[in-house]
From TrEMBL:
It comes from Sphingobacterium alkalisoli. Keywords: Hydrolase. One of its GO terms (molecular function) is dGTPase activity. It comes from the Bacteria. The lineage of its organism: Bacteria, Pseudomonadati, Bacteroidota, Sphingobacteriia, Sphingobacteriales. One of its GO terms (biological process) is dGTP catabolic process. Residues 59-264 form the HD/PDEase domain. Pfam families: HD (PF01966), HD_assoc (PF13286). This is Deoxyguanosinetriphosphate triphosphohydrolase. The keyword Hydrolase applies.
Length: 447
């Protein structure tokens, strides 16, 4: 793989158009960022759970604030990488004109990395999958191919993001979001189909990156950017190198910022957060500055900022130093795991504490359980109704609730189920709960 081809500004659906930024205020990749910021799927992230239940009196991060912060970190990672490469090669811009745009590409990809995640965080993904593996949805397996069943039995938010960005939904632009090929490839962390994913020990096949209907779309991206075949999977591909920067930005943010939210919610004390973050602050003596701050919240903010700065610089350096491996597809670890051993060990300790104290906190577990029940119940109502050929009165009313943009003219079982999943997976937490209450008769709509 090579940077000249990997950084294509060709736009999805407008392949014949020649990009021309000569007289424009924004590059093609900056346009990607702006399109995402103003999009409905991105705005809906405001009411989707990140980790903690959506806030009452105390602010905690939701999917939207998380995505904005990941995009900010991603831009810094890309810019630092470019600066490091520029120091090594003063003629870099002439050889690779779009390399200076890496920060913008990564930032746009970071904005969209969670677009496909359903309501209630990972519990929503698990609820969708379990409907088909343990619930009423098991009966549909015999009506579809193994590839299609793998999509449903292991629902994946990463694959759903690519679908949202490229699929021609009814009444919407048939070119999807029309993002650049480079941005689209940078969100696909696991460039394989569901049936080829979930391989232990393989970093780029840990999950999967596209549903069966988007296979041809991803192969178009592969051909344009010159992504290489995966030597361990004849049907899959190697990652676009910028995926590693998107992944690192996400890893940095959720590991560090979940601690900040836990402190706000009094799940972790200030001393506990300080002990976890201070070793990541680059060896700088912060004691006087910390003691000079009036409240523990401000001290946590300082520690968070310094820790993120250390991780950004470290990951950018690892990325720059391993260009040969990244471009040949032989770099098989997250950038965060390739940092100095002391930092890696401290990040593992943060992960251990987060699992034990944060992700299993009562409020987190409660929202996961509630979300699991809500998502499962919605699928139990919508999927059978949409699949029935001879629909009764109730079935017709249920189908009428699905917006036209999600309906399909295809008659096969998989396509119809996929239409329902497009609708349900796009719901916010608040909308899903409200709809659940209404269709169960728990609450009645007001006029």
């Amino acid at each position: 793989m090579n940077w000249k081809q990997l950084l294509s500004a060709k736009r999805w659906g407008y392949e014949a158009r020649v990009p021309n930024d000569q007289f424009d205020a924004r590059s093609e990749f900056q346009r990607d960022y702006d399109r995402l910021i103003f999009s409905s799927p991105f705005r809906r992230l405001q009411n989707k759970t990140q980790v903690f239940p959506l806030p009452g009196a105390v602010f905690v991060h939701n999917r939207l604030t998380h995505s904005l912060e990941v995009a900010s970190v991603g831009r810094s990672l890309g810019r630092l990488f470019y600066n490091l490469m520029k120091k090594q090669n003063p003629n870099l811009d002439a050889e690779y004109p779009f390399l200076q745009e890496v920060g913008n590409i990564v930032s746009a990809a970071c904005l969209s990395h969670d677009l496909g995640n359903p309501a209630f965080g990972h519990s929503g993904e698990a609820a969708i999958s379990s409907f088909f593996t343990e619930g009423r949805g098991r009966e549909y397996e015999k009506e579809m191919t193994a590839e299609e069943w793998a999509d449903l039995s292991h629902f994946e938010g990463n694959a759903n993001a690519l679908r949202i960005l490229t699929h021609p939904f009814n009444g919407k632009d048939d070119k999807g979001f029309a993002l650049t090929y480079a941005t689209l490839a940078s969100i696909v962390k696991y460039p394989c189909a569901a049936i080829d994913g979930h391989v232990k020990g393989s970093h780029h096949r840990k999950k999967y990156g596209y549903f069966a209907p988007e296979k041809k779309a991803f192969e178009k991206i592969v051909q344009e950017l010159g992504l290489e075949r995966d030597p361990t999977n004849s049907q899959g591909y190697l990652r676009h190198p910028l995926v590693y920067l998107v992944e690192a930005a996400d890893d940095i943010c959720y590991n560090i910022i979940d601690l900040e939210d836990a402190h706000h919610l009094k799940i972790l004390s200030y001393d506990e957060v300080e002990n976890l973050l201070l070793p990541l602050c680059g060896g700088e003596d912060l004691r006087n500055r910390l003691n000079g701050l009036a409240d523990s919240g401000s001290r946590v903010e300082l520690l968070r900022a310094k820790a993120i700065n250390t991780l950004i610089h470290g990951c950018a350096e690892v990325f720059a130093q391993n260009q040969d491996k990244l471009l040949s597809g032989t770099f098989e670890t997250p950038l965060v795991d390739a940092l100095d051993e002391r930092i890696v060990l401290q990040m593992k300790e943060i992960e251990r504490i987060s699992v034990m104290r944060i992700y299993n906190a009562p409020t987190v577990v409660q929202i996961e359980i509630a979300g699991f029940k809500v998502m499962n119940a919605l699928l139990e109502e919508f999927i059978p109704a949409y699949l029935k050929k001879d629909k009764g009165h109730f079935d017709k009313k249920m189908v009428a609730m699905i917006p036209q943009q999600f309906h399909t003219h295809k008659e096969d079982t998989y396509s119809k189920i996929r239409a329902v999943l497009d609708y349900v997976s796009g719901m916010t937490d608040i909308y899903a709960i409200d709809l659940y209450r209404k269709i169960k008769g728990i609450s009645i709509p007001s006029l």
